[in-house]
Design goal:
Blueprint lengths: L13 E3 L2 E3 L6 E5 L6 E6 L3 H20 L2 H17 L1 H12 L2
Antiparallel strand pairs: 1-2, 3-4
């Protein structure tokens, strides 16, 4: 990776709905770690096909979300906040890998 001690695996696939897409019409992009200039990941890029799929997936997910009772949406948002809080260290590492030291 980049010399940063971490067990964080860099995400490189697109997430469309609940599917990881690593082969797309948009090709790939070498993400450069700014602190060293080295490639730290090759990222899958979305092309027109993947963007269209993502928009359709998001529209369907929004309808499902809107149909949930308010209390269930609240509980899911609180769970999300807990998950972000639990992953603070990993998120910080990803931030450093994205923007440098």
């Amino acid at each position: 990776m980049t010399g940063i001690a971490s067990s964080v695996e860099l995400p490189t696939a697109l997430l469309i709905g609940d599917e990881d897409v690593s082969d797309s019409s948009g090709g790939t992009f070498d993400h450069i770690f700014p602190a060293t200039g080295a490639v730290n990941a090759t990222i899958t890029m979305a092309g027109v096909e993947e963007v269209d799929r993502a928009v359709r997936s998001a529209a369907a997910a929004q309808r499902e979300w809107a149909a949930l009772p308010v209390a269930r949406r609240r509980d899911l948002m609180l769970s999300l906040a807990d998950a972000v809080d639990a992953a603070t260290q990993d998120l910080a590492v990803l931030n450093v890998l994205d923007f440098g030291l």
